[in-house]
User: Which sequence fits this backbone?
């Protein structure tokens, strides 16, 4: 028998590829992917100033740094458009890097802070609809793209390419516009339900709180989005460490009550990667809650004052422990496993204090006293750039009352009741009367 060497066809099938990369990303996360690209372009000129957590703090406090880029998002059941006023994308960059499924090279992404795996833009537009128009103006000459996704998916030609045409160098205005039409049915339904826009605005304000204050203004259907301001008490625990090219700062303390109460959505652990919120208000096994043994306890309502931040920074965004959707954590990441150990250590003192507020008789420390325990309020960035420190529970004042309990013969108690002419007194009433009598007549009241 003659053995013939053959080559089996292992080329990717576009329909399967599109289905795989869009299946596990939500529509909100798809919009955040589009915004990531615009913010990444806005941040790139200052990327050399964002190398450590300390750099993020300095920029947050630098009053000379104000948003220079606007991002406009328009959402309707008919079309989606995102437009920014950043530096744009050159035709050369578009041809060589932007539309690759994956990073073209490490050098090509040296200034990136939020662009990670090279699939976010493509995945987002595939998730939303079928017809895509991208127009970018750049000082060196931009590009145009018109893409029908269903037609592109039928084309089996190798290698995969997108048809782009160059634009003249921009003389004044630069920026990029992405327009998606022929929206998928799932997209149309969500954009018509009256709930989606509220969820999207809330996610934008929470996810980009740092960038909204310094680099960009974001508008959704002409409404300007404000960043969520997260504050913590200055009495907090802090640790930091570094693994390879990734540094991590961890803080835990008492949050600041909203409207006089501690909200569930504002408690737990908040995880940031390069200033972008990845996980919000987590109270699950992911962040060590309810793990048993040496972990944190199961999160209960009494723990709502707890607030913790984990702030990862790296010049190589791919080494950060986020997932490809940037809405989850890679739990097998070495840097995350190390961070989790620190989180349990840093958080335990705060949790012990909160647990200690409760005894068999109820709450010993009033809610108002939590503010005294937290001390001064400080913002997120001030909390994640600190020196090693430990949460200091406030000293409890000595007790003002002491419970006295003793056994007495029933006949003797009844004799006292008869002497007082008050039959039916309880044992506690008899005890209180005799104690007050002795204090008044033998000791003398102060």
Assistant:
């Amino acid at each position: 028998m003659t053995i013939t060497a053959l080559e089996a066809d292992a080329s990717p099938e576009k329909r399967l590829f599109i289905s795989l990369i869009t299946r596990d990303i939500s529509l909100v996360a798809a919009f955040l992917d589009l915004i990531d690209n615009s913010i990444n372009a806005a941040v790139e000129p200052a990327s050399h100033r964002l190398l450590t957590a300390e750099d993020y703090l300095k920029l947050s406090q630098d009053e000379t740094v104000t948003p220079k880029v606007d991002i406009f998002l328009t959402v309707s059941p008919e079309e989606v458009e995102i437009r920014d006023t950043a530096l744009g994308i050159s035709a050369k960059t578009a041809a060589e890097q932007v539309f690759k499924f994956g990073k073209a090279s490490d050098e090509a992404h040296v200034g990136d802070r939020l662009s990670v795996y090279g699939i976010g833009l493509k995945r987002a537009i595939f998730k939303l609809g079928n017809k895509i128009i991208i127009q970018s103006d750049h000082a060196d000459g931009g590009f145009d793209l018109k893409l029908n996704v269903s037609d592109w998916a039928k084309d089996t030609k190798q290698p995969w390419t997108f048809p782009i045409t160059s634009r003249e160098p921009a003389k004044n205005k630069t920026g990029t516009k992405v327009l998606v039409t022929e929206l998928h049915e799932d997209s149309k339904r969500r954009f018509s339900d009256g709930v989606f826009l509220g969820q999207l605005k809330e996610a934008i304000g929470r996810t980009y709180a740092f960038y909204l204050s310094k680099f960009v203004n974001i508008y959704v259907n002409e409404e300007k989005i404000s960043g969520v301001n997260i504050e913590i008490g200055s009495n907090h625990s802090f640790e930091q460490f570094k693994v390879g090219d990734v540094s991590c700062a961890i803080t835990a303390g008492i949050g600041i009550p909203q409207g006089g109460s501690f909200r569930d959505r504002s408690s737990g652990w908040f995880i940031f990667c390069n200033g972008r919120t990845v996980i919000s208000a987590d109270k699950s096994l992911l962040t060590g809650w309810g793990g048993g043994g040496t972990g944190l306890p199961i999160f209960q309502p009494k723990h709502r004052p707890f607030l913790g931040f984990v702030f990862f920074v790296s010049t190589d965004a791919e080494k950060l422990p986020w997932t490809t959707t940037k809405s989850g954590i890679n739990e097998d990441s070495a840097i995350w496993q190390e961070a989790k150990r620190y989180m349990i250590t840093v958080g335990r003192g705060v949790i012990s204090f909160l647990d200690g507020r409760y005894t068999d008789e109820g709450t010993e420390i009033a809610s108002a006293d939590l503010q005294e325990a937290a001390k001064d309020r400080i913002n997120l960035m001030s909390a994640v750039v600190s020196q090693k420190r430990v949460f200091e529970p406030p000293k409890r004042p000595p007790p003002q009352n002491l419970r006295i309990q003793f056994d007495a013969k029933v006949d003797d108690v009844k004799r006292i009741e008869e002497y007082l002419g008050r039959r039916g007194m309880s044992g506690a009433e008899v005890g209180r009367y005799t104690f007050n009598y002795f204090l008044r007549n033998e000791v003398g009241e102060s």
In short: The mean pLDDT is 88. The radius of gyration is 31 Å.
